[in-house]
Description:
Helix content is 79%, strand content 0%. The mean pLDDT is 94. It starts with a helix and ends in a 6-residue tail after the last helix. It has 123 residues and is mainly alpha-helical. The protein has one domain. The radius of gyration is 15 Å and the shape is elongated.
Amino acid sequence: MDANPLFRIAAIITFVVGGALLLAYPWTAPLLGIDGPPTVWFHITTGIVLLFGYAYWRISRDPATNRPLIVMGAAGKLIFAIAIYAHWLAGTASGPLALLVTTDVVFAALYVAYLRSNPVARA
């Protein structure tokens, strides 16, 4: 599996979603069922999303050097999805938001598949 397109696409999607949430909150929040004005937690989360986008961009340029970021990315995507799914099941997160993080589960699986198909070279 070629890392460049996988992680470049992940970076672009992450930048688009994070950027839209940060820069177009009045339009994107209702689409995702997010009520009220953005909170400090919303801004922190959005910042972390954008930081992950940067990590995916770095991975796309040099996956071998940035291999630890792939593990972090897979874990981060699963943690984020589990948190949103738990809130969705509890009735405190919307269906559209839960649907959106399903892409995170798909990308996490693709990251794990990449790691398995590209083992670390041993000296």
